[in-house]
Amino acid sequence: MYCYDFHVVMQEVPGEISLCFTISGCPLRCDGCHSPFLWKEGSGSKISEKAYGDILHRYFGFATCVVFMGGEWHPEELVFYLKFAKEQGYKTCLYTGLDKVNQKILDHLTYIKTGAWMAELGGLSSKTTNQKFIEVKTNRVLNHLFSPH
């Protein structure tokens, strides 16, 4: 699994400061994708257990959640990194353009954002969006947390 970039973010998971890993090799290729450079498999650097562990250790006590932007096309590796994050005390989240993911992945998530990007429907803050931000344990849709109202 290759990580194109890493950022500390505050908007992807409301109420959480998140460590965000953007994974390359996305096979979905949504029309209007804001990151078509992520379609190429192998862009960025291979995620190593040591580098990942170092990042989680460095931000522990500041960040509260680990977010993967994609990666569901590498289910075994993604599950490994999600489990590791949870063992370190982090919440976990996956942003995917799919409507559903493998249960083995879902079992290790606190939150999931589902749904392909469709410009005419808008993102999570839009009332017409097809996307859902879900708290996995309760299956509650939390899109209202993205609304400016």
| CATH hierarchy: architecture | Alpha-Beta Barrel
Q: If strands are numbered along the chain, what order do they take across the biggest sheet?
A: 3-1-2-4-5-6-7-8
Give the C-alpha Rg. 15 Å
Please report the distance between the alpha carbons of the first and last residues. Answer: 38 Å
CATH third-tier fold name: TIM Barrel
Total tally of structural domains: 1
Question: Could you explain the architecture of this structure?
Answer:
The chain has a single domain (about 1-145), classed as Aldolase class I (TIM Barrel). It is globular and about 40 Å long. About 20% of the residues lie in helices and about 25% in strands. It has an eight-stranded mixed β-sheet with strand order 3-1-2-4-5-6-7-8, covered by helices on one side. The protein has about 150 residues and is α/β, with parallel strands linked by helices. The model has no long low-confidence stretch (mean pLDDT about 95).
